[in-house]
Structure formats: structure tokens, C-alpha cells
């Protein structure tokens, strides 16, 4: 049995095992009221939006944990599908023959011309992909900025913007994508979002002793001025923005890694 067949059998058995375990757990699941009554009956919310209050006032540690799960997902995808593992120089050194610099440079240029993978689709899809990507990005920004007064928020808005990036890549390919997020830019964006979320939580802990405490004023200044008739929402909009940047950068980084050019070892061996 070759390696591919063994891997497929292992994956199939894993799906069967975990699928059976999940179905068994769901079958024996008992639904209890839990903390729903507390969420719905309590009026001690700084923010009037129940969804945001649950996410950031009551379950802020859960939201922070979800961000950490996304970080781990990016790390795993980077380790498994990282562009460095598929670089021509690395594979040539590992599986190819030694050449002098001029010959190696010439072969690398030929390889780039003949083995470049274009994931772009037909012109019709390209014409539709860009306007839809722009609409998704604008909608994502609106969902993030309005998360404190609507059921939206950072996770939903960040996922929408990342979906716009994915759609643009599917339509135009990785080389000619009009929405160009470099790897270093995504790293900086993700780092900024994570640090902003944690720093805001630390400020709340300094003020009240509770991490991610939602506060309205700092040094006598209103944190997030609201229009007349709306209650103050505290740091929720800033938390939504930080989470949105984190989710946007994380999902886009995963897409960036998965759609990077892959070098097939068989072609390397054939070329040599």
C-alpha cells in the first residue's frame, strides 16, 4: 500500500471515529436553561445591545479564547502549508542536482515560467469578483463599526472582509489579485489587533480589578461619545475593531498560505 492510499485510509478512519463520537455526544445532550435567564433578565449592562453585552461583558474571556484558537489555526496552517516548504531553492537542494550559479539561475527562471500556477478564472468571473469583493469589504467595515448597536461585530465583519479577499484571489489568482495583502502586512495587522484587545482588557483591570471591564470614562473623558438618545457603549467599539482586525488578518493569512504556489516534487525530479 503506497503512502497516498495509507493517508486516505487514515483520514477516512479518523473522520468515522470523530464523527461517531460527535453524533453520540449530540444524541445524549441535555439542554438546560443555564445562564440564559441571567443574560436576559439582568439590566446591569453598560451597553444596551444584548449581543455585544454577552460577547464582551459576560463572555469576554470566551471571545479572547476564540482569538487564540484562530492564532493556533494560522500557526498550524503556516507549518503545514507554508510557502517556505515549497520554495524552489529548498526543493532543488533537497531533491535536485548541484549546478553552478549561472545554470541554477537559468533553470529557476525557466521553472518560474513553466510551473507558475494561475488560479484565475474566466473573464466573466473576474468581472463579477471585484465588485462583489468591494461590496463585501464595505459591508464588513459597516458590521464592525456598528457592532455595538447591531447584532454584528468584529468576528462577523472580519470574516466578511476576509471573504472579499478570498473571492478576489479566486477570481484573479495570487499573482494578479487587485486586493494585495502582503504576508508582512497581515502579520502586522494581526499583531496590532491582538495587542489592542489585550491592552484594553488590562486597562479595564487597572480601573476595576476585572479583566476586560467595560468602562465609560477615563481621566474624565468619555471613551466613546454617543449621539443624543443613545447610551454610552464604553470600549465595545474598540474591542470590535481589534477583533475585526484579528479575524481579518488571521483568515486572510490562512488563505494566503493555502493559495501560495505549490511545487510538485515529481516535476522537480523530471526536470533533473
TrEMBL record:
Q: What UniProt keywords are attached to this protein's entry?
A: Cell membrane, Membrane, Transmembrane, Transmembrane helix
Q: Which Gene Ontology cellular component terms are annotated? A: plasma membrane
Localization (cell): Cell membrane
- Transmembrane parts of this sequence: 12-30, 68-88, 127-149, 155-173, 194-215, 235-259
Q: Which domain of life is it from?
A: Archaea
Please verify whether the record's keywords include Cell membrane. yes
Q: Residues in domain Na+/H+ antiporter MnhB subunit-related protein? A: 125-252
Question: Transmembrane helix among the record's keywords?
Answer: yes
Coarse class of the protein's main subcellular location: membrane
Q: How does it sit in the membrane?
A: Multi-pass membrane protein
Entry's Pfam families? MnhB
InterPro entries the record matches: CPA3_antiporter_subunitB, MnhB
Give the matching NCBIfam families. PRK06281.1, PRK08386.1, PRK12579.1
From the Swiss-Prot or TrEMBL record, give the protein name. Na+ antiporter MnhB subunit-related protein
- Read off the lineage from the record: Archaea, Methanobacteriati, Methanobacteriota, Methanomada group, Methanococci
Amino acid at each position: 500500500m503506497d503512502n497516498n492510499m495509507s493517508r486516505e485510509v487514515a483520514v477516512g478512519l479518523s473522520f468515522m471515529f470523530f464523527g461517531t463520537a460527535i453524533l453520540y455526544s449530540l444524541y445524549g445532550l441535555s439542554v438546560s436553561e443555564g445562564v440564559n435567564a441571567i443574560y436576559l433578565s439582568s439590566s446591569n449592562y453598560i451597553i444596551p445591545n444584548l449581543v455585544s453585552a454577552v460577547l464582551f461583558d459576560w463572555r469576554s474571556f470566551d471571545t479572547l479564547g476564540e482569538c487564540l484558537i484562530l492564532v493556533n489555526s494560522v500557526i498550524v496552517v503556516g507549518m503545514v502549508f507554508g510557502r517556505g516548504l515549497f520554495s524552489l531553492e529548498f526543493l532543488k537542494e533537497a531533491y535536485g542536482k548541484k549546478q553552478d550559479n549561472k545554470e541554477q539561475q537559468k533553470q529557476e527562471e525557466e521553472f518560474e515560467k513553466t510551473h507558475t500556477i494561475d488560479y484565475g478564472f474566466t473573464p466573466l468571473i473576474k468581472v463579477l469578483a471585484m465588485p462583489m469583493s468591494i461590496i463585501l469589504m464595505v459591508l464588513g467595515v459597516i458590521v464592525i463599526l456598528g457592532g455595538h448597536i447591531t447584532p454584528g461585530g468584529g468576528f462577523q465583519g472580519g470574516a466578511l472582509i476576509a471573504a472579499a479577499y478570498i473571492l478576489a484571489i479566486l477570481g484573479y489568482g495570487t499573482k494578479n489579485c487587485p486586493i494585495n495583502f502582503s504576508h508582512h502586512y497581515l502579520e502586522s495587522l494581526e499583531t496590532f489587533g491582538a495587542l489592542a484587545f489585550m491592552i484594553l482588557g488590562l486597562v479595564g483591570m487597572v480601573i476595576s480589578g476585572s479583566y476586560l471591564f467595560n468602562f465609560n470614562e477615563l481621566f474624565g473623558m468619555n471613551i466613546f461619545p454617543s449621539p443624543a438618545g443613545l447610551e454610552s457603549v464604553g470600549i465595545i467599539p474598540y474591542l470590535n475593531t481589534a477583533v475585526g482586525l484579528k479575524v481579518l488578518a488571521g483568515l486572510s493569512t490562512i488563505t494566503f498560505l493555502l493559495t501560495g504556489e505549490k511545487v510538485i516534487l515529481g516535476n522537480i525530479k523530471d526536470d533533473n
